[in-house]
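Please decode residue identities from the backbone states below.
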């Protein structure tokens, strides 16, 4: 019984901090709203990538992406359930999923994209509107 009780203060702290972490994620999500431009990469190929984040509700982002120069040509995708968790952002899209890490200065995102047939890297910079 005493062994179990010694973990109680730790569990209580974790429960108390959970709303703070969620609030930080929402603040980070709000700061991501805007246009991001960069490149997608695959082996020795690559192309332009533009991600427009239109809205943030809590830690959920909504917007669109345009992938230029892919094997199937240029195409636009949308996302309505992208989620921010700490400095990580996951963008589930109908065609291309991608995840990225926000830089410390909040001006760049770097990560990986995944399609049904390939995966690669991506790098984005905040575009000043």
């Amino acid at each position: 019984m005493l062994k179990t009780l010694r973990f109680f203060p730790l569990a209580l702290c974790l429960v108390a901090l959970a709303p703070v972490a969620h609030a930080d994620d929402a603040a980070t999500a709000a700061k991501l709203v805007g246009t991001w431009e960069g490149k997608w990469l695959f082996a020795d190929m690559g192309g332009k990538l533009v991600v427009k984040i239109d809205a943030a509700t809590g830690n959920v982002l909504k917007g669109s992406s345009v992938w230029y120069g892919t094997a199937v040509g240029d195409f636009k995708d949308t996302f309505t359930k992208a989620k921010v968790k700490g400095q990580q952002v996951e963008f589930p899209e109908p065609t291309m999923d991608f995840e990225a890490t926000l830089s410390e200065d909040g001006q760049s995102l770097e990560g990986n994209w995944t399609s049904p047939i390939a995966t690669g890297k991506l790098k984005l910079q905040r575009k000043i509107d």
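Observation: The mean pLDDT is 86.
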